[in-house]
Amino acid sequence: MQENSKAIERYIVLFVPWMLALLCKGDSILSYFIAWLGSFFIFLISLSGWVRPIPKDRSMAEQLMRPIFIIQIIFAGYMCCTSIFYFMNSLGYENFRQVTFHTLHDQDTLGLIAQCQRYYCLGHASFVAGVLIFMNYPIKKKYHIENTKLANLLMFAAVISFPVSLLFLTIPGLSQFYYQFSSLSFIAGTLALAFAIPLKKIGNTLICLALYSFNFYQALISGFKEPIIISVLVLGIFLYPTYKKLVAITFVPLILLLFTVLPTYNHIFRSNAWNGDANSGDASQVALSAALNSDDDDLKDTNWEFLVYRLSEIDMFTKFVQSTPKTIDYYGFDLIKQSLIALVPRVLWPSKPITEDLIMQRVYDAGVINRNSVVSAKPAYIVDAYLSGGDFGIFFYLFAYGAIAQLICLKAEKLFGGYILGTALIFSGLFQIMWRGISFEFMFNTVFWSYISMLAIHKIMLSTHILKEV
C-alpha cells in the first residue's frame, strides 16, 4: 500500500515544474525558464529510474530504442528544449549576443512564448507518465528466433523491405505504405550493419555498409535535416552497447558537427534542387562545398536563423494560441473525426477528402500562413492536442501518446521474440513517425496501418518458420 502511494506521488512530481511555471505566469521570463528547465528535470527523474525503475531485463545501453529513451529524447527533446533560441531572439539576442533590449511592448510576445513553453512542459510530463505507467517488463516470451540467424535475417529484411516500399509507391491509393517500409528498410540496414561489424563477417559487413551508404545518400538529397541526423544517431545507438567509448568520442562530435553545417547545407541544397536549377546530385555537391567553406559570419547568420525559426515550432504554436479559443473555438472531436476519415485507404474511397487539405484548413483559419503561400505548415501533435481541448486536451492526448507507444512496443516484443526484432527492428522501423509528433490525421493513419503491417509481418514470419513458438 505504501509502495503504491509512493509511486503515485512520484508520478505527480512529473507535473510539479508545470504547476510552478503556472504559479509564476505573472513573470513571463521566470515562468518560461521554470517550464523549460522543468523538461530537463523530467528527463532526469524519468531516465534515472526515480519515478519508476528502468527495466532490468537488459542493460540500459541495450534498451535505448524503447519509448522511454528514444521517443522521449527525440520527440520530447525536440518539442520542449529547442524553443530557447526563439526565446533568446525575442529577448534581443542574436548569435548569443544581446543586440537590443526588450521593451514593455514585447511583454505580450514573451507572455505567449511562456504560455506555449508551459504547454510543452505539461505535454512532456503527460507523455512520460503514459509511458511509465504501462512500462511492464519483462514480457512473457511466446515466440523466439535462433540468435545465429539474426544477422542474416536483418540484412535480408533490409534488402526485401526496400523494393516492397517502392512497389507500394506504384500502387494507386497505397502509397502511404511506402514510408513505413522505407523506414523499416533503413532501420533493418542500420541494425544489420551494427550486428555485422562485431561478428567480423566481411561479406555481411560490405553489403550492410552499401545499404547504409545508399540510405544515407537518400537522406542527404532529401532536403531535410532530420533523416541525416537520424541516420547517424541510430547507427551510434545500435553500436553503443558493443563500442561504448568509441561511439562516445566519435558520434557525439559528429552529431554536433551536423547541427553546425546542416542549416547552410540544406539552405543551399533547397535553393538549387527545389528550384530546378540543378539535379539532386549536383545540388548536394554545391551545398556540401558551401557548408564546409562558408565564411564565418555567413555561417553564424544562417545557423542563428535556423536555430530561431526552424529548429523549434514554437513560432507557429504561438499563432494558434493567439487565435484559439479567442476567435476560433476549440475543435473538440472534429480532428479525431478527420483522423478516422484519413484511416480509409484511398483505393477503397477514391473521392476521400485530401488529408493535407483538411489539415491546412485549420492553419489558414488561424492565420499562420496565407492561403496563397506555397509553404506547408502543418501543426505538430501537441498543437492539435491544444486545439482539441486546451490544457486538458494536451494532458489527455500526450498521455495517450506515451501509453500507446509503450503498449505497441510491448506487443512488438511479444510477437517477435524480444527486444532485437520486436523493438529495435519492427517498432523502430514501422513506428518511426512516433519519434516526431505530427498532425493527428497523419499520426493516427500511420500508427494504425503500421500496426496492421506489424501483425501481417508476424504471420508471414510464423508461417515461414522464421519465428517459432516457445
From TrEMBL:
Keyword Transmembrane in record: yes
TM regions (residue ranges): 7-23, 29-47, 68-88, 117-138, 150-171, 177-199, 219-240, 246-265, 381-404, 416-435, 447-467
NCBIfam families, A to Z: XrtY_assoc_Wzy (NF046084)
Keywords in alphabetical order: Membrane, Transmembrane, Transmembrane helix
Entry keyword annotation includes Transmembrane: yes
Protein name as annotated: Oligosaccharide repeat unit polymerase
